[in-house]
Automatic annotation (TrEMBL):
Residues 36-227 form the LarA-like N-terminal domain. One of its GO terms (molecular function) is lactate racemase activity. Pfam families: Lar_N (PF09861). It comes from Kribbella soli. This is DUF2088 domain-containing protein. InterPro entries: LarA-like, LarA-like_C, LarA-like_N. PANTHER family: LAR_N DOMAIN-CONTAINING PROTEIN (PTHR33171), LARA-LIKE N-TERMINAL DOMAIN-CONTAINING PROTEIN (PTHR33171:SF17).
């Protein structure tokens, strides 16, 4: 029986608490009275994954069973979430592989031979052949990839995009031509957090810049409260409107899976335990890991974390019509992640870990570190932010000046050229976005190499718009001073220094909440 999440109040008996800090972690003593929000323990997984998959496909929600939708001569497209999910990546076999194999078996039985598989990466970077193989498995990879039937979506391939129309708000819906012209579009989703899934899967994952710019902009992001609550998120409202247009043209069979919080195992299992419950073995593992990471060269340390694979267990799978399926999905996500928190605090503290959606098999550059902390973690709430309006956020991460020229070429220029002129999202959007979005070199790298689209760093900066608008102060502990200053933030050497720096706005005895994640949590702030 897994235990729910809870809120601990720090007192004189509380041991030092673990804080994620990029490719490492710290043990920090928090001021007495600090609220520490712990995530729920991992829910028990379903006993028979194959049986659960078959049940979902044969007994869908508000849809015919999948076999009844399949017939000889039809055009079937299977789209799936890319490597931005789950985080960290999961051990083999990936749940997407198991679902896709089940769908393909039913398609073969029905005599369907026109089948294509698409990684729904929108403006994310293309997946390498090995990364595609990791998701779909060796058998599917060998059957489809050599013939060009398994591939990455290309949002800049004008010949293979279809404009389906506009929403009632005038938003363009332009998606993959193959998906738009299919008799059936099957979408295979991994819902790691409450932000994922629903109409966001198809209307964002398979969309071009012409569509994405309607909701990936500074105004929409500021008014998304929060990304983890699709009913309060302006971005999701737009995606849902687009989904209405899309599903009026395309038959979609949505398959959504939910995972538990079994993220860290083996020698780093202590990372998902409560500190006062560490066994002697856990304490030895923690000390040994901490010393090894401190002594390891940067490349070795990076490889250690890049190689982490998680033991996620499947907690649920639902298939059928998008919206009722997603409601079931959200219920399962909330059972795993929701923690009730009473009231807001003057200060919120968060540790930013080694991985985010956009640095898988890559490096977390300064903009991605900001997005992870002030975009994803800040928005890990339902109801109200953990920190009050004009309060302070304190984050832990080295924020080194480190960029991948392969994966994030436009990020380097964004950091050096754009942020040197302004850090205001609206100003940046008006002055620079079009130039980067239409730059031929960035488009070339996106289409032929493994680079994120030229506009992607803008989207990551808009992602933190809500936090920038809400917070009065943002300070990074232990961060590269010049790097965070370029982004408009401040750096402190210690937590005590950071609290002193924000005391002018929150006082010298502020209320403090520390979000103790990962594993994932969703603060239900009442």
């Amino acid at each position: 029986m897994s235990r729910p999440g809870f809120v601990l109040e720090v007192d004189d008996r509380t041991p030092p608490l673990l804080v994620h800090n990029g490719e490492g972690f710290l043990l920090e003593r928090f001021p007495q009275g600090t609220r520490v929000v712990y995530p729920p323990e991992a829910l028990p997984p379903v006993r028979d994954v194959d049986e659960a998959i078959q049940n979902a496909l044969l007994n869908p929600i508000e849809s015919e069973p999948l076999p009844e939708l399949l017939r000889p001569g039809m055009r079937l497209t299977i789209a799936f979430d890319d490597i931005s999910l789950p985080l960290p990546p999961m051990k083999k076999p990936d749940i997407r592989q198991r679902v896709i194999e089940a769908v393909l078996e039913l398609a073969a039985q029905a005599g369907v031979d026109d089948v294509e598989l698409i990684s729904a990466n929108a403006l994310h970077r293309r997946l390498t052949p090995n990364e595609l193989r990791e998701i779909v498995g060796e058998r599917v990879f060998r059957s489809f990839f050599p013939d060009g039937k398994l591939y990455n979506f290309d949002a800049e391939d004008r010949d293979n995009l279809t404009h389906l129309g506009q929403t009632r708000h005038g938003e363009d819906v332009e998606i993959s031509k193959r998906a738009a012209e299919s008799d059936l579009l099957v979408y295979v989703n991994v819902n790691l957090v409450a932000m994922d899934g629903g109409h966001k899967s198809t209307s964002i994952g398979l969309a071009s810049y012409k569509s994405l710019k309607h909701h990936h902009n500074s105004h929409t992001m500021i008014h998304s409260r929060s990304f983890m609550d699709h009913k309060a998120s302006k971005m999701h409202h737009s995606a849902w409107r687009m989904g209405e247009v899309l599903t009026s043209h395309v038959k979609v069979f949505q398959i959504e899976t939910t995972l538990n919080n079994d993220i860290f195992g083996g020698p780093i299992e202590f990372l998902q335990k409560r500190e006062w419950e560490w066994s002697i073995k856990d304490q030895a593992s923690m000390l040994g890991t901490k010393r090894a990471l401190a002594a390891a060269p940067a490349k070795v340390r990076h490889k250690i974390f890049t190689d982490v694979r998680s033991n996620y267990g499947l907690t649920g799978i639902n298939a059928g019509a998008i919206e009722p399926v997603h409601e079931k999905t959200i219920e399962a996500v909330h059972r795993q992640h929701l923690v009730e928190v009473q009231g807001q605090s003057d200060v919120a503290i968060m540790g930013v870990p080694f991985v985010g959606p956009y640095n898988v098999n890559s490096v977390m550059n300064p903009i991605l570190a900001a997005c992870m902390g002030l975009g994803y973690y800040f928005n890990s709430y339902r109801g109200n932010p953990v920190v009050r309006k004009d309060g302070a956020v304190i984050l832990y991460h080295p924020v080194d000046y480190e960029f991948s020229q392969l994966h994030h070429p436009s990020y380097v220029d964004f950091f050096e050229e754009v942020l040197s002129e302004s850090t205001d999202p609206a100003t940046i959007e008006a002055k620079f976005e079009k130039q980067y979005a239409e730059d031929p070199w960035y488009i070339h790298l996106y289409r032929t190499s493994y680079a994120y689209h030229g506009v992607h760093p803008f989207y990551m900066w808009y992602w933190i718009s809500h936090a920038l608008d809400h917070c009065g102060d943002i300070v990074w502990v232990g961060a590269n001073r010049k790097t965070v200053e370029r982004m408009g933030f401040r750096s402190a050497s210690t937590l005590q220094d950071a609290l002193e720096m924000v005391s002018h706005s929150v006082g010298r005895s502020p209320s403090i909440t520390y979000l103790h994640n990962p594993p994932h949590l969703l603060a239900d702030v009442r």
